[in-house]
Prior knowledge:
By secondary structure, the protein is α+β, with helices and mostly antiparallel strands. It is built from ten helices and 21 strands. Strands 1-6-5-4-7 form a five-stranded mixed beta sheet, covered by helices on one side. It has a five-stranded mixed beta sheet with strand order 10-9-8-13-14, covered by helices on one side. A four-stranded mixed beta sheet has the order 15-21-16-20, with helices on both faces.
Amino acid sequence: MALLNHRSRNLEGGVVMFTRDELDKLLSNGKNFNLSIFLTTGSENRDLQKGRIQLKNLLKESEAKLLEAGIKKTELSHFTHNIESLLEDSMFWSHLDKGLAIFATEEDFYFYTLPVEFEPIAVVKDHFYIKPLFPTFQRNGQFYVLAISQNKLRLLYCTKDDVTEVKLNDVPTSLAEALKYDDLGNKMQLNTRTSGNAGGQSSVAYHGHGAGMEEDKTNILRYFQEVNAGLVKYFNNDSIPLILAGVAYLFPIYKEANKYRSLLEQGITGNPEEASNKELQQQGWTIMEPYLKKEEIEIKEKYNDLKSTGKASNDLSSIVSSAYNQRVEVLFIAKGQHVWGRFDKKKNELKHYHEQNEDSEDILDFTAFHTFTNGGKVYVMEKEEMPCEGAIAAIYRY
């Protein structure tokens, strides 16, 4: 039974962070019957108690929906026993974020505490219900801050409101450490001295001009290349923006070593050793917020430019069919909205219902699922911020 937790479970390599790659893994583990539960938990005691009661109610609703879907009563516990364990775990309820997402099959169980509030819902279908998760990738603004200096390295996973320091293994966290294990270290013309800090840690002093300065730059570049190579497994080829924090002269050296595609041009300038994790997160957010707004503005402008060409549309039937057939490049859906229907995959036709019934599913989730799993981008936004009227719009690949 797999158990994954977004924030408080410390796995090898640090906290499991809910990234696009993590969602890919989640979706790849879906079975014939998939239970998804979302609720808002909050962080105050009163809110947590309310969240606990809400989860109990959603568990009862889930059992009814599983039975209705064809699960035998004797098999219910395969889906629910881990949820029951969470309900009884006081430690779990004391370490929650704003929202809780739970995913269960007969064999696997996943839960994530996330910094976004969710509309309470329980869904059973042939894939995990993922529509509520997309705001996690958007305005909540996931980003990394890499605090770099010659004597210390920190990788921070940040959102708009939160910061978590990632535990780094197999990554040199100082220039001295990198050189210690470098076969060329003894040949480098570095003047190292032992500092007076507890533990006798060593630091590195640098010449400020001429050939010595060039050699120092070469050594720092080698250090950053080792750092970059070690960080690959943490970044996982993801698209979460990375912001550098450090003194200005280190930025171009790190950028020369960098292989991560989502490194932002703008960084946090200054000595990061003097800043707390929270201070770096706050400074990072001042860079991220306009970046995210600019991205949304540009993609909505692209929609408006293309809508008269047939490469963009807000026609529900066309979008659903296109998403299923891998044609949607960008999908916009209105937050908190549900559109009920059933897509006939053989006939490539949408049957639209005005209200939920036994045969219906949330077509917005169906469309988001197929857009995302086929490499498209999904934006969930307030209805008044949509690029057009209605609950859905799309830009097509062709």
